[in-house]
Design a protein that fits this description.
2 copies of one chain form a homodimer. By secondary structure, the first copy, chain A, is α/β, with parallel strands linked by helices. Chain A folds into 2 domains: 145 residues, 3-Layer(aba) Sandwich (Rossmann fold); 65 residues, Winged helix-like DNA-binding domain superfamily/Winged helix DNA-binding domain (Arc Repressor Mutant, subunit A). Chain A contains 10 helices and 5 strands. Chain A has a 5-stranded parallel β-sheet with strand order 2-1-3-4-5, sandwiched between helices. In chain A, helix 1 links the parallel strand 1 and strand 2. In chain A, helix 2 runs parallel beside helix 3 and helix 9 packs across helix 10. Chain A is elongated and about 60 Å long. Chain A starts with a strand and ends with a helix. At the A-B interface, helix 1, helix 5 and helix 10 of A face helix 1, helix 5 and helix 10 of B. The first copy, chain A, binds a DNA duplex through helix 9.
DNA sequence: CATCTCCATACAGATTTCTGTATGAGCGAA
DNA sequence: TTCGCTCATACAGAAATCTGTATGGAGATG
């Protein structure tokens, strides 16, 4: 089993809970914790330089801002930074996030080894995830594998995301067109934008723009 | 100090973290925990019938749904139910919620004794809160008292909330007017609705309806 | 090559949004 | 009582949204 693990989680109580589980249920002897990404990165770097590396990083995704100014502000950035030093470190993300596309992105783009949803069964899931990852597996959360959700099927490309983003910021279609032209993004005819937004209405069963924005906000896509 | 405490929190890791703090830092001997509101209520009721009552309830606000069907589904309902049996029980809410108006509502309408924000300083805050409540104080979260936020100053009445709700569901102003008339809610002139929505634009510095919806969704008002 | 389909755009019209002005009712203060 | 204020409504016009149709090009298929 792993012997040296770093836990990056800004939320103190959860931090303590994770350590308790790793310690009491799995029997990992050396667990360090960090409430800030920067601090986690420094701890990691120091261990690496001392040739006493961590074997596993367990990290949250979002870290609240406070008075301490941080250069690394998200779990994703932390993972990238840590992996840039030690490419083979195992990474488990432990987060509230439960959108399948977001979680899949973590596996595909960041090559994380495991994911655990904060929730009712987090203890069991965390134990199974750590064991699985130790055995070299990639451990997806059970909520996800059991749930091939319909909402999942909607594939949004970059243009869709830009449109949603701009609309949610109050941009009018004309302004969006200008912006797309400025950014040299190709389909930028005003009526094509209309068509795409109409398609989004269909996809999300929205009646109009405010409704659409409400839906994607609820889904956490923005 | 309190000797018998009930912790209602569906999120397992946090559950363990709270218990650890109550036990190790404050030295409370008897701590029971519950991942479901119904279960928490039953534990509470049993203790009350056995004349071995809990002195303090620490509860989250939101509980995720799962296969177990619950009659009590929110921390707020749990508090009301528990208070209906034992009016003088002390209650501390421990939640992610950080909107001042929502938290103030808890103090005003539910008469909770303390509130702790999940976050970086939750351990210290929880300890201070429990001690303060034990001494008979009402303990507001420091984030709130130090932060007389601007967003706080916006007072939304029932009509505002209905308008936001309807708009977010894609209703047009005409439909909203009809709905208001049906519900026999008094100011229901179409142009007055326009005015109120325009006022919301000003309040939230929104450029148009989609923008407004995005803002209030981000603020968690809907 | 002819055809079919999809993508990108243009245009047009009906509807809705947003903003401004006007009007009266109610209410407190001078 | 009369002034000033806010609330509630009506109306009106410019701008934006939403929807449908039309056109041309690119790529696939037979």
């Amino acid at each position: 089993m792993f012997t040296k693990v770093l836990v990056a989680e800004d939320y103190e109580i959860a931090n303590q809970g994770i350590i308790k589980v790793l310690n009491e249920h799995i029997g990992i002897p050396c667990i360090e914790e960090s409430k800030y990404c920067d601090d986690a990165y420094l701890k990691f770097r120091k261990a690496f330089n001392d040739q006493n590396t961590f074997q596993l990083l367990i990290t949250d995704l979002s870290f609240r801002e406070d008075h301490n100014i941080q250069t690394i502000t998200s779990g994703e950035a932390l993972i990238k930074n840590v992996r840039s030093i030690q490419t083979d470190i195992k990474v488990i993300v432990y987060s509230q996030e439960d959108r399948p596309d977001k979680i899949n992105m973590l596996f595909e783009k960041l090559n994380i080894n495991g994911y655990v949803c904060k929730g009712q069964h987090a203890i069991r899931e965390l134990i199974e995830c750590v064991q699985g990852v130790y055995e070299g597996k990639t451990v997806h959360p059970p909520e996800l594998t059991n749930n091939p959700e319909a909402s999942m099927m909607i594939q949004l490309d970059e243009l869709d995301m830009i449109l949603l983003e701009e609309l949610s910021q109050g941009a009018t279609k004309k302004e969006i067109r200008v912006k797309l032209k400025d950014l040299q993004i190709s389909p930028n005819g005003e009526s094509y934008i209309d068509k795409r937004v109409s398609k989004l209405f269909d996809d999300f069963k929205a009646r109009n723009t405010p409704h659409l924005i409400a839906i994607v906000k609820d889904l956490g896509l923005l």
